[in-house]
Amino acid sequence: MATTNEFRVGMVIIFNGELHRIDEFIHRTPGNLRAFVQAKLRNLRNGRVTETRFRSGEEVEEVRLEVKESQYLYHDGSFYQFMDQVSYEQVGVEEHKLGEGAKFLKEGETVKLMVANAEIVGAELPPNVTLKVVETIPGVSGDTATRAMKPAKLETGVTVNVPLFINEGDKVKVDTRSGQYLERVKN
């Protein structure tokens, strides 16, 4: 058991009989009233986010997570398929458990899957990935002077905005958390 004083972002708790991850929380003391903790909880089964108030010092059941390094294999339409790096067991993971960064995954990428009670409840994706540009309008010499951007389709099928000097075939580094272009990668 843990108290609300021990809350931290990413902590997994059992709330209303289901696993929830704490996305945000803040301790509040409104004037002369009792203190409470306002928390944003993400249901790990369906991905829904709810805001909940806990009394300050209230006990909640914390769930310990096991982290397994896995290699991304392919997306079969409904599940992302991963292979455990130790046991070579293949497992399917739903997209909402991977988050928005799932669209940047390419085959062979290493991901840390979080397991609680023998169930995959989330994933820690690499902070950035290097992807090849497969489709964009051609760049023109001298386009490096401004901060203008253009859309570019990457090898995973996702479209991001890149500077005008990026051409088809270039490799770019993209932040998986925000989906933003970081830099061009030299071969």
Compact description:
The chain is mainly β and 187 residues long. It is 2% helix and 52% strand. The mean pLDDT is 87.
What does this structure look like?
- With 187 residues, the protein is an all-beta fold.
- The chain folds into three domains: 2-62, SH3 type barrels (Roll), CATH 2.30.30.30; 66-124, Beta Barrel (OB fold (Dihydrolipoamide Acetyltransferase, E2P)); 128-185, Beta Barrel (OB fold (Dihydrolipoamide Acetyltransferase, E2P)), CATH 2.40.50.140.
- It is built from one helix and 16 strands.
- Strands 1-6-2-3-4-5 form a six-stranded antiparallel β-sheet, with no helix packed on it.
Biggest beta sheet summary:
6 strands, antiparallel
Q: What is the string of SSEs from the N terminus onward?
A: EEEEEEEEEHEEEEEEE
Please give the share of residues in helix. Answer: under 10%
Total beta-strand segments: 16
What's the rounded overall pLDDT mean?
Answer: 87
Number of helices: 1
Domains, number: 3
Give the strand order, joined by hyphens, for the main sheet.
1-6-2-3-4-5
Keywords:
OB fold (Dihydrolipoamide Acetyltransferase, E2P), 1 helix, mainly beta, flat, 187 residues, SH3 type barrels, five-stranded antiparallel sheet, six-stranded antiparallel sheet
